[in-house]
Amino acid sequence: MATVAAEANLAHAPGPSHGGAPRSRSWRRRRRARSPTRPTVAELRAPGHGSGGRRRSRNRSWQSSELPAMAAESKVSPVCPAMTAAVEADVRRSGGGGRGWGGRRRRGELQPANMAVQPSPTPYLVKRRRRVLEYGIDGRCRRAAALSQPTNDMNPSSFFFWPRDQPLRVSPNRLLLCDGGIIAPVLVRSIIDFGNEHSSSTVRKKRRSPDMATNSGLLPVVDLAPFFTGDESGMARATEAMREACRTLGFFRAVNHGVPTELMARALELSAKFFALPDEEKVKVRPVERSQAPLVAGYGLHPPHLVDRYEYVRTCHPRHELNLYYPTEPAGFREANEECYAKLTELGLLIQDILNDCMGLPPGFLKNYNNDRSLDVMVALRYLPSTDEGEIGLSEHEDGSCISFVFQDGVGGLEVLKDGQWIPAEPVPGSIIVNIGDVLRVLSNNKFKSATHRVVRKPVHRHSFGFFWSVQGDKWVEPLP
Ligand SMILES: O=C(O)CCC(=O)C(=O)O
Ligand SMILES: [Fe+2]
């Protein structure tokens, strides 16, 4: 998803299933009930895992009926024919009861809500940069908005789009995002302190303070080996470590994650070879000028009006028709990319399932909800060396994804903002950095952080891969636990 998205230090109110504070009895009961039935990685990958089945039937106290009555009273407010059609189709499919939420959502009523209409520049592109995200939002919902650049100039992981000729409509508790050209209604309801963020000027001042100390602390490490060996107590420890990392920082380093170190090294090496090609070769794999396709695999460069300095090759799902533009050189680049994509998808499934437990959701809930993998995106990135003119590779931002994954070469430069200080996410060979994106931040009711991060350039080129596990389609994104 757009390169990256995170939320800056929103006030965090620990809840029963997330807080470091004493957990409720129900939280502990649920944990005890779920742990013995955690699926193995092989089970997780099997089609159909998730809904119903063994785990759910053994944990009757965890039916989705326990979830809050999410959006029960909400109404979808169509803003354009495409959205109306999408919503109506969904309502037809679901017999008016919605889908994926145990029939709790009533989506049958299609009527315009009393929404503020903001004129907005065209074309619209939802960006995750703070200044953009604040555009057109009515004071409670800062995190999504539309704006402003031709799609060819988009940040590699930005992929929420808004129709060019539609005004942005927002209401106090509802955001509308466009995902890959399909409008997705995003309901943001009762997020704790969502509208009480520090004023943006305060945040900016704090972040740009010249005497800001650099924190040398390392990212929390989560060892995923137990999920491959079936070690129950190891799985419980890793789940707890992940939950704590998501709650406090929104970033962690995954080790023993199942993506072969050799594959990551090969992909990085081949991408370095690709980026070292002459520009005239690289642009051949760029989408055609002025293409309106929201997501087309291929080469691109940082938007010229930004201080950012990077180039990228975007890969969509290997079987997806959006992979129209693919580098043929260097040999093996495509294969390495596709292998990485597949392995990262497996890792995404695993981590999503662990996060499902971390959030105290019914087994398989997130997998059922987020069951369309067609718009996950992988981006090979090369950051230019720093110069006297600047050292920002990728400006501070938060990921709009559900979950993001990064592996990198040994150069370094990725930094995570915590309490006003930038924490370097140092390269550690073989590890993968995982961070929570905006979607999970909302689903967790702000209990998980979608941290602000950036890439600072170094004197040499830096290479990395980002994989953005997204939510596709007209999914409602709203607080769950
Ligand atoms: O290249 C990196 O290390 C991070 C990239 C990133 O944050 C993004 O693409 O969203
Ligand atoms: Fe990012």
From TrEMBL:
Record protein name field: Fe2OG dioxygenase domain-containing protein
Cofactor entry: L-ascorbate
Coiled-coil positions: none
Region annotation Disordered: where it falls in the sequence: 1-78
Family the UniProt entry places it in: Belongs to the iron/ascorbate-dependent oxidoreductase family.
Keywords on record: Iron, Metal-binding, Oxidoreductase
Single GO term (MF): oxidoreductase activity
Signal peptide per UniProt: none
Classification via Pfam families: 2OG-FeII_Oxy, DIOX_N
Biased composition (Basic residues): 25-35
Cited InterPro entries: DIOX_N, IPNS-like_FE2OG_OXY, IPNS-like_sf, Iron_ascorbate_oxido_reductase, Oxoglu/Fe-dep_dioxygenase_dom
Keyword Cytoplasm: no
Native species: Eleusine coracana subsp. coracana
Domain named Fe2OG dioxygenase: residues: 374-472
